[in-house]
Amino acid sequence: MNDEVRFERQGATGTIWLDRPKALNALTHAMVRAMDATLSAWAADPGVARVIIRSTSEKAFCAGGDVRAVRALGPGPHPDQVAFFSDEYRLNARIKHFPKPFIALVDGICMGGGVGISAHGSHRVATEKFVFAMPEVAIGFFPDVGGGHVLSRMPSRVGFYCGLTGGRLGLADALWAGLVTHAVRTADLPEIADALTAGAPIEATLAAAAFVPEPGPIAARAAAIDRLFAAESVAGCLALLDAEVGDHADFARETAETIRARSPTSLCVTFEDLRRQGSLDFDDGIRLDHRIAWRILADHDFFEGVRAVLVDRDNAPRWQPAALADVDPVEIEAHFAVPPGGDLALP
């Protein structure tokens, strides 16, 4: 039994409770395995008609995967590191293809691994406290857990903006971008959950509680983002940002500064990943995530990024290479090759 994630059966409803609040529900390998095993059983159980996933934390749904534990295993790819990401990606695929309604009730922070266990379900219900981000380039990683699949399908080039900066979306922008299917208020969440658990009609229950938030700042800048991220490389996007004048000049300058602080290798990998993901189905996309993760575990920047941001917290990562111009295109292409063990086998 894993006490950091709990499972309840009430009538025809199965509920997953993320219950690691002090760590903002950062996903451990044990949590991933427990969820995957339970969802496999519930998918085959005719007595389960729907699944709800929610959090006991008032701050976060899930802030991501427990990458500090991954780093602690040392330079990779270590078998346990590969197993963690492989199992996590299989869980993401199971949620994507779950044969029954999968309802994520997201109240608060939802980043990285938290996106992987919510954004692929049939119903993504979020509150005014919702904060979305895929901030992996800040730790030398990339938007995995099916994040590339999601980002590459956002309107305009907003997904490229989010992927290359780690920029956050609030409720309104997430609804606009299609990440969220229903916007509800935090105060109404217990009543919504009780009704859904009791078997109330899903669509009618969510529609009755939904509201339309005021437009968000990213939607208002969508045309500018589309133009500023229209280049065919990270360097090209930076050139467009540097050249921006007028109403969006400050936004462009701040965005360029953010990008330049990220891992150059991660930026190039992420850009190429998003470029490819738009033409792939989910399964091929998650297999691509597995290829990239395997290679990144053999790189320097992931271990250095986790050290700087999450372990020592000096926020002064020493990237290798340190400059975008020094990134070798051959090295970037190697991240997309089939790993020695073959592609990820999906359930």
UniProtKB/TrEMBL annotation:
The keyword Oxidoreductase does not apply. Its EC number is 3.1.2.4. It comes from the Bacteria. NCBIfam families: PRK05617.1. GO terms for biological process: L-valine catabolic process. One of its GO terms (molecular function) is 3-hydroxyisobutyryl-CoA hydrolase activity. Residues 14-336 form the Enoyl-CoA hydratase/isomerase domain. The keyword Isomerase applies. SUPFAM superfamilies: ClpP/crotonase (SSF52096). This is 3-hydroxyisobutyryl-CoA hydrolase. Keywords: Hydrolase, Isomerase. It comes from Segnochrobactrum spirostomi. It catalyses: 3-hydroxy-2-methylpropanoyl-CoA + H2O = 3-hydroxy-2-methylpropanoate + CoA + H(+). InterPro entries: ClpP/crotonase-like_dom_sf, ECH_dom, HIBYL-CoA-H.
